[in-house]
Amino acid sequence: MSRLAICPGSFDPVTYGHLDIIERGAKIFDHVIVAVFNNQSKAPLFTVDERVALLEEATAHLPNVSVDTSNGLLIDYAREHNADAILRGLRAVSDFEYEMQITSMNRKLDDHIETFFMMTNNQYSFLSSSIVKEVAKYKANVSDLVPEPVEKALKKKY
Ligand code: COD
Q1: Which of 79, 81, 91, 107 is labelled catalytic?
Q2: pTM higher than 0.95
Q3: Atom of ligand 1 nearest to the CA of 87
Q4: Which tens digits make up the pLDDT trace of 72-122?
Q5: For an engineered disulfide with 87, which of 5, 27, 93, 117 has Cβ 3.0 to 4.6 Å away?
Q6: H or E element that contains 8
Q7: What DSSP line would sit under 17-59, residue for residue?
Q8: What ipTM score was computed for the predicted complex, to two decimals?
């Protein structure tokens, strides 16, 4: 039986931390859809189309990964696509409370879809899109934090 996971996020922009979770997830699940959603509590730097284009470049080497976007609820998206799981990454204890909140709400809305958490690779435990934008704004080198097309896109924005 073929197993599908949805890896949802803002991806504003995609970092090597996200990519690590996507790559590891793609080894476990038959197919992974990376889905770009708007997070109401964040003001995005990149448009949804820009985020999708950068994700497509960054995941081009993964044949069982596709990129999509949605304006709706994550759980509705997962249901519509007949997903088996929602795939999320965990960095630190500080992520836990937020993740528990959204997982509990998603489970209340549909208890058939499991959420899978993968611990960050130690190397990326400090890494977030916000921190990348913060340092890129001050022209610091971000080449070991994000794929090259993202680095270029950040240079254009700032
Ligand atoms: N190492 C490991 N994992 C990482 C790293 C790293 N360095 N950096 C990020 N991640 C993980 C995150 O933990 C997350 O799992 C994923 O990568 C994406 O991260 P972000 O920051 O791009 O995504 P978020 O947290 O902004 O995504 C929030 C959603 C968009 C999923 C959420 O807002 C949502 O579900 N929106 C749709 C509307 C909805 O359904 N709302 C109700 C939810 S209850």
Answers
A1: 91
A2: yes
A3: 15
A4: 999 999 999 999 999 999 998 889 999 999 999 999 999 999 999 999 999
A5: 5
A6: strand 4-9
A7: HHHHHHHHHHHHSSEEEEEE---TT---SS-HHHHHHHHHHHT
A8: 0.97
